Amino acid sequence: MSPSCKFMQCLQFAARKHANQRRKDIKQTPYINHPINVSTILSTEAYINDEVVLMAALLHDSVEDTDTTFEEIEEQFGSEICDIVREVTDDKSLAKEERKRLQIENAANCSTKAKLIKLADKLDNLRDLQISLPVGWQEERRNEYFRWAKKVIDNLRGTNQHLEDRLDEIFIAVLN
């Protein structure tokens, strides 16, 4: 199945927005790889073919990490995608610990589409952390992230067994 024109526009939009950003890994991977990975995980590992979910996955960090606004997303990609992106976007005006607490607390109340993105997002982040630590991180900080991510994931359970199984494999490998 080939991607639609709208999906490709969304991919280009995300690539433009994240163009000058890098991941925090040693290789400083282009940031756009992460939203692409999240969308790919949903498609190939969770067997999701809902283009709305896949497009929202491409945009999931746009408002949080770029100058993108919700209004811009709604105007270009519609209210359904915008609503999903809104659900998965942290409020950067809050302290980091508060944002992390709210992710755990609010995870169970998200829509199924938002939960899918959260699962795939955590899966991609945890896989990256298995490979290498971000610059400035020690092993304990990585383990703290894994323990926190597990709390978020535990509140998303029952959403997609395929992703949950992949996440459990990682938790067993790292936390035990």
TrEMBL record:
Q: Which residues form the signal peptide?
A: none
As recorded in UniProt, its EC number(s) are 3.1.7.2
Coiled-coil ranges (or none): none
Q: Where is the HD domain?
A: 31-126
As one GO molecular function, the record gives: guanosine-3',5'-bis(diphosphate) 3'-diphosphatase activity
User: What reactions does this protein catalyze?
Assistant: guanosine 3',5'-bis(diphosphate) + H2O = GDP + diphosphate + H(+)
Q: Which UniProt keywords apply?
A: Hydrolase, Manganese, Metal-binding
Give one Pfam hit by family name: HD_4
Cofactor(s) needed: Mn(2+)
Role played: ppGpp hydrolyzing enzyme involved in starvation response.
Q: Per the similarity annotation, which family is this? A: Belongs to the MESH1 family.
Q: What is this protein called?
A: Guanosine-3',5'-bis(diphosphate) 3'-pyrophosphohydrolase MESH1
